[in-house]
Amino acid sequence: EMASKEGYPHFMLKEIHEQPFAIGSTLAGINEKEFDNVVNLLLNSRKILIVGAGTSYHAGLVGDYLLTTVLGLDTHAVISSEYKRYVNAVNDNDTVIAISQSGETIDTLVAVRALKERGAKVIAISNVIDSAIPRESNYVLYTRAGPEIGVAATKTFTTQLVIMTILTLRAGIIMGKLDANEYRSIMDSLNKLPGLLQNIITRTEGRVKALSEYMSRRQNAYYLGRGIGVPLSMEGALKLKEIAYIHAEAYPAGESKHGPIALVEEGYPVVFSILDDDNVDPLLGNVMEMKARDAYTIGFVPEKYIGKFKELLNAVLELPNVDYRIAPIIYIVPMQLLAYYTAVARGYDPDKPRNLAKTVTVE
Ligand code: G6P
């Protein structure tokens, strides 16, 4: 292997720590003209489909949330291998955003080909220049995360989210859905992300490591959130599943009482993500429900709501107060660390999870 771990025990840990730099490079590499061409296409589309697999699908779900909920564009995130569900409903007024770190995932490539055949235009978001999916797309936006060696995606996810956020902001300003002040303030937060994330990693790594001791002794976990916290929870759960081999399931918190709560008993870990003001009170109710069943409640909570949640949480990760539209980029980092340290505590190699491949080239 040519790449070096640069003193880290695993590539995954190195890549988690590289995120401030990867985000900085992605922001620095943004070509406004390229983005404006893509934004133009999105604004003139009847419908937008976002296709992706694994972690890239989760980035697509966050993108779907931003385009649908923030901008009101008709957007659907689709698991690449399930694209057939939409084929009949797509025509040349539609646009596909294909998200793939490697640019080579066969499921995503097959979806791109089929939807292009229907007349849709395709925008690729990829970390590998000139890979198959970018080559077959009409437009390409590259993340500049640098090579990712760890099988479980980390820095490519956060940089994909950066691209989706900037697309949303630029479209929002043209559509008049965001005013200039809001635009500037979120852009400003994005530009400060590298420093902020560096700080969060330094501040939370010890606590996360301590929490992983508990997690490493469990067989199951729930990850619950609302709104943009749902895809965040899905990605957090996927990380734990992929490398620590713990059955982790994400659910919209409001849906947890329609089934999942039946499994909760003393000590069952339930990870709550608190992001947007609108969902704080309903989430508080969900935390109470789990606490009442003696769950081991873990909260990723912004500073301003710590007081509200503290008593109900067995473990709390304090995060900065940030705009909910960029919060997933921040919150996922301690979740990646939690999966990493849990895998290590269980004696597994996080860089080489069993049965998984970095890039899947069979359908
Ligand atoms: C594999 C990897 C995942 C990745 C997915 C999609 O399953 O193990 O980490 O998210 O493929 O990969 P892509 O290169 O298309 O983003």
UniProtKB/TrEMBL annotation:
Residues 38-177, 211-353 form the SIS domain. It catalyses: D-fructose 6-phosphate + L-glutamine = D-glucosamine 6-phosphate + L-glutamate. It is an enzyme of class 2 (transferase). One of its GO terms (molecular function) is carbohydrate derivative binding. The keyword GTP-binding does not apply. The keyword Hydrolase does not apply. The active site is at 358 (for fru-6p isomerization activity). It is found in: Cytoplasm. One of its GO terms (biological process) is protein N-linked glycosylation. Its EC number is 2.6.1.16. Its main location: cytoplasm. Keywords: Aminotransferase, Cytoplasm, Glutamine amidotransferase, Repeat, Transferase. Catalyzes the first step in hexosamine metabolism, converting fructose-6P into glucosamine-6P using glutamine as a nitrogen source. Homodimer. This is Glutamine--fructose-6-phosphate aminotransferase [isomerizing]. It comes from Vulcanisaeta moutnovskia (strain 768-28). The lineage of its organism: Archaea, Thermoproteota, Thermoprotei, Thermoproteales, Thermoproteaceae. The chain holds residues 249 to 611 of 611 of the full protein.
